[in-house]
Amino acid sequence: MRLTKLKLSGFKSFVDPTAVALPGQLVGVVGPNGCGKSNIMDAVRWVLGESKASELRGESMMDVIFNGTTSRKPVSRASVELIFDNLLGRALGQWTQFAELSVKRTLTRQGQSDYFINNLKVRRKDITDLFLGTGLGPRAYAIIGQGMISRIIEAKPDDLRVFLEEAAGVTRYKERRKETHGRLEDTRENLTRVEDIRLELGSQMERLETQAEVARRYHALNEQLVQRQQILWLLRKREAEAERQRVGLEVERATTELEAQNTALRETEARAEAMREAHFAAGDALHQAQSEMYAANAEVAKLEAEIRHRRESRNQLEARLVQLEGELAQWSQTAESLAVDRQKWEELQEIARLRADEAEERLQAQMNLAPQVEESHAQAQEELQRLKARTSNGEQRLEVEQTNKAHAQRALQGIAQRRERLREETGGQDAPDALDLAEKEEALFLLREELAGDQDQLQQLQQELPQLETTRKQVQVELQRIERELAAGQARRAALEQMQARTLESSKLPEWLRRHGLENAPPLWQQIHVEAGWESAVEAVLRERLTAIACDDSAKLDEWLHDRPDARLSVMLAAEADVAESVGRLSQRVHSDHPTVSAVLNDWLGSVLTAGSLDEALARRSDLPPGAVLVTAGGDLLSRSSLTFFAPDKSEHGLLERQREIETLGEGIAAYEEQAETVREQLLMLDEQFADKQDEIGETRQYVTDRQQRVHAVQLEVLKLAQTIERYREQRERLQEQLAELAEEEESERERDLAADDKMAEVREGLGRIRVLVAGAQSRLDEAERAVRAERERNADFDRALREAQFSLRESEGKLQTIFGQQATAQRELNRIEKDRAQCAEQVEAAPADVMEENLQAALETRQEKEMALADCRNVLEAATHALRGLDEQRMKIEQGLEPLRGRIGDLKLKEQAATLNSEQFAQLLSDAGADEVALEQALAESANNARPASLQGEITRLGNAIAELGAVNLAALEELETASERKGYLDMQAADLTEAMETLENAIRRIDRETRDLLKSTFDTVNGHFGQLFPELFGGGRAELVMTGEEILDAGVQVIAQPPGKKNSTIHLLSGGEKALTAIALVFSMFQLNPAPFCLLDEVDAPLDDTNTERFCGMVKKMSANTQFLFISHNKIAMEMAEQLVGVTMQESGVSRVVEVDIEEALKMRDAA
User: Fold this and answer.
1) What DSSP string runs through 245-283?
2) CA nearest 127: which of 87, 163, 93?
3) What is the CATH number of the domain that holds 643?
4) Which of 107, 843, 1046, 1164 could form a disulfide with 1052 if both were Cys (CB 3.0 to 4.6 A apart)?
5) pLDDT tens for residues 258-304?
């Protein structure tokens, strides 16, 4: 995977889009200092995921964006892209299939940083994963910047191990381990949460059990309440139905009475209806008569109005004729006047045309004479301006010299004042007392000696305090160790005692023993001491008799015979001690302080012999006496005719061993408690000494602080006094220097004053001559201006005459156009008036008035007849109205009697409806409740004594109170309890899965550590070997190696040991800068030989090397370029000659870097041609 191209835009000084092609294996970047070469290295480091601004030589990540120059504005975005050739498929993961890879990073001023691989947006982690194990990365060994060589070789062992891990390619393993450890921590947290939930769920289930019991009680009471409530509803339904039937009968009787009253009302309404029809007919006749009357009146009014209109129209027409006659005369007179005006303006137009032609010819002749006069005026004016400019220059020179003279005068006055002031300062200063300074310096010396003594005392005390603290910590550690041992012993003893107690309690005997008052009777195994190693043998022989109890009273034994125990029980009876020889017998290895127990043991173990092994026992079998048994230390039993292999009894195995260990632990615990008490007393004494020492240090430190303050105060006084003396001396010297400078400055100003007088006289003389010439030029200019003005006035007169003639011509033409329009208008008006006058005459003649008068008389007679017919119709209508009013009064009386009856019927129907609604309501309640009315009828019949609503209501109230006494009831407690049980089962399974997952992850971490350890070990050995070979090649001899600083390779650091030829230095820090650089190069190239990176960046690595070492360095780079592409920055000519391609970086524009490619072959050809 080789780097083929680098693209930058807006990154640091590369503001313009820049592409750097990298086709070769050895590419050199050259250019002057400060041109931005190292920015290329920073760009590669940045795009590979560098997130620390200081590694990119900046204070914040925003510093990588071009920040502008004096001629360019800042940009808002930085972008760097690396193009890789991946034909060999060395890229990891999903990117293997791509022949070319593009890795890109962008950053905006809003802080948005994006990464891309082949234009696909990815995470920063994806970029680092792509280069894991390749030696590439933001801080890997394949990118060596300025100063990094020294940092590599002088790095701490732990930091140097990071480079070794990158060379080994274990960074992938570390990432996997980190992810696995993260998942393990997550799994542990999940398991903790699951355990917390299980614990909480257990308490919740206990609470739900209580709530479920309350819910069951609630359901039972509620069932009784529902039954009583439904029976009450059934009774209410019956009562409502009975009420409805009673009210229904009353409604029928009231309805019959209402129908009789309605019949009488209908008869009255029929008579009234007939009379109303007659009334309507009379009304219609009256309306008809009124209509005819209105029509007659309208006809009369119409005829009268038409007669008036005709009279008014005739008067208007006659007046219009008179008006038209006047207008005709007026327009005739206007036409005659317009004809006269037209003839006059045509004559004026011809005269104006002649005048305009004459004025234009005169003006043209005058314009030909104007240029000569203007030219003479311009020449005179130019001559005058030139002379005035000379006059102005002279005046300016005169003002300058006057200013110089005034400045010199003021400067001389200022010098005199400053000299006087300096003399006053010199005479007014008082010399400081040097004797006072000597006294204060002596006092300061004495105070410093006292302070040194106090500081020595404080230092001695501070040195004693850590020793005391170390002793105290050692004692604390010892106390903690003893307390841990004591706690462990106590815990072990408690555990063993619990095991012993459980062994006794596991049988059926404890109840029998308590019944006979033997619960405190010690068993046999608590009363014997067995030799170490023979516990199994004693267990094999005694078995259940190990739990035997002693009985010295025969009465108790008789009682036990009648109340036999429920399990096996051995009883030790009093017997005479057998003093027979016990050498070689098992009883020899068992001891007891109780005579009864000793006697019983001799009896039980007297015939049991011991053998060191089963082979020995088999060899001695033939020598056994009858009834004797051989037992081995392992518990196997051998008689003359049988062999029994020992198998421990789970319930009683280890009793003797545990008992012996309990006794031993008791002795150890007592010893540890005694030691702990002694150490606590020692620690208390050390604490008191430590506190006293701290108090003494505090007091001494306060003395030192006070003394330092006094020293500081006196030192300030000495310093102030010394500074005062020094200032006095410096001020005296400064005053003398200033007086000397003033004398020189006064002499210089006097010379400037005299020179200004001379120059002013010279300038005044020249100004006099120039002013004479200016007066002559001014007179000539005035004469030329007068000629120009006269010429311009004549031109103006001719031009004005031409404009006046042209205006007269335009005026006459306009007047003629106006007259033509007015004549046409007058002719049109005359034609209109003649036409209107003829029409009015015709209308006046066609207006007869006699016919209209006859029609009006006939209409008046018709109106009188209609008035008489209308009076007759009014009389008929009044009679019908009176009869109808009487029938309406009779009807209203009947209706008033109906209202109370209807109200009574309405009330009854409301009662009937209410009863029906009540019945339906209770029926609906029963239906909604799903009640079985048959069963309710049966229950009602059975409880005849309580079949009253009041009794049922009391029972319902009692049940309600009982339910209320239950308080808040969780009705879902039963379902919640079931759900919680199911969830607990699921959580139990989840906890088991998480535990299994933790074991799997821990195994994975152990496997990763094992693989990493092996890989690091082999890598360390290989790199160490390469380092030992490359170092002599670069130095021409010497030796070098890598050394682990710890035993565990995963945590151990790496230290570099390097000794150039002829040197026996003990540490790498004693080497020179060049030797350190060569050592670091040898180390980096050793890692390259193990795991060659796709490319390597070197930023002025050869800077500290001389020519000889540079040649060795270049030779090694050329050799390694077969597997690794090198991009290096150098100012060394030898290194430049090594490059296959040179890339030049320039900064012709301030603050902006540009790339210039250099063709080496073409350059060589040009050199050879020259």
Assistant:
1) HHHHHHHHHHHHHHHHHHHHHHHHHHHHHHHHHHHHHHH
2) 93
3) 3.30.70.1620
4) 1046
5) 787 778 777 777 777 777 787 778 777 777 877 777 777 777 777 77
The helix (run of H) or strand (run of E) holding residue 608 is: strand 608-611
> End of a domain among 649, 666, 684?
649
Average pLDDT, stretch 808-837? 75
Quick: pLDDT tens for 1112-1145: 889 888 888 888 889 999 988 888 888 888 889 9
The pLDDT-based confidence of 81 (bands split at 50, 70, 90) is very high
The residue to which tokens 């104006």 are assigned: 352
Is residue 265 a contact partner of residue 888, using CB atoms and an 8 Å limit?
Answer: no
Which residue range forms the structural domain that includes residue 536? 530-649
CA atoms of 838 and 836, how far apart (whole Å) = 5
Please choose, from the candidates 955, 482, 525, the residue with its C-alpha nearest in 3D space to the C-alpha of residue 681: 482
Q: How far lies 350's CA from each of 343, 354, 835, in Å?
A: 11, 7, 40
pLDDT tens, position by position, 571-608: 666 554 444 444 567 667 777 777 777 777 776 776 77
**Token pair belonging to 29:** 């970047």
Burial class (CB in 10 A: 0-12, 13-18, 19+), 150: middle
Residue 840 has pLDDT above 80, yes or no: no
Determine, yes or no, domain membership for 719. Answer: no
Exposure on the CB side of residue 366, measured as CA atoms within 13 A: 19
Task: Map residue 506 onto helix, strand or coil.
Answer: coil
Report residue 577 CA to chain centroid gap: 91
Dump pLDDT digits (tens) for 844-878. Answer: 665 555 566 677 777 777 777 777 777 777 777 77
847's CB contacts (< 8 A; 6+ apart) are 310, 313, 314
- Please give the helix or strand (H or E) that residue 26 lies within, else none: strand 26-30
| Domain-located, residue 656 | no
Strand order, beta sheet including 18-21: 18-21, 2-9, 77-85, 100-108, 113-117, 120-122
In a domain? residue 631: yes
Domain end residue (candidates: 628, 649, 670): 649
C-alpha distances in Å from residue 624, one per residue of 95, 637, 839: 86, 13, 184
- Positive or negative CA dihedral for 651, 654, 659, 663? negative
Q: Which of 43, 117, 123 is nearest to 80 (CA)?
A: 43
pLDDT for residue 6 = 92
Separation between Cα atoms, residue 1152 and residue 1157, nearest integer Å: 17
Contact criterion met (CB below 8 Å) for 447 and 714: yes
Length of the chain: 1170
Most confident of 510-524, 716-730, 1106-1120: 1106-1120
* Euclidean distance between CA atoms 560 and 554, whole angstroms: 10
Task: Tally the domains of the chain.
Answer: 2
Residues 6 or more apart whose CB falls under 8 angstroms from that of 780 comprise: 380, 383, 384
Per-residue pLDDT reduced to its tens digit, 517-568:
666 667 766 667 677 777 667 766 666 666 666 666 656 666 666 666 766 6
Q: What's the confidence (pLDDT) of residue 577? A: 45
Q: Cβ-count burial of 725 within 10 angstroms (0-12 exposed, 13-18 middle, 19+ buried)? A: middle
| pLDDT one-digit tens code per residue, 6-17 | 999 999 999 999
Look up residue 1151 and give its DSSP letter: T
1029/1035 Cα distance (integer angstroms): 11
Of the listed ranges 306-310, 403-407, 498-502, the least confidently predicted one is 498-502
- Examine residue 1109 and state whether it is found in any structural domain, yes or no: yes
**Mean pLDDT, range 460-485, rounded to an integer:** 80
- Any bridge partners for residue 644, and if so which? 637
In angstroms, what CA-CA distances link 370 with 380, 669, 785, 788?
Answer: 16, 143, 13, 8
CATH (domain of 131): 3.40.50.300
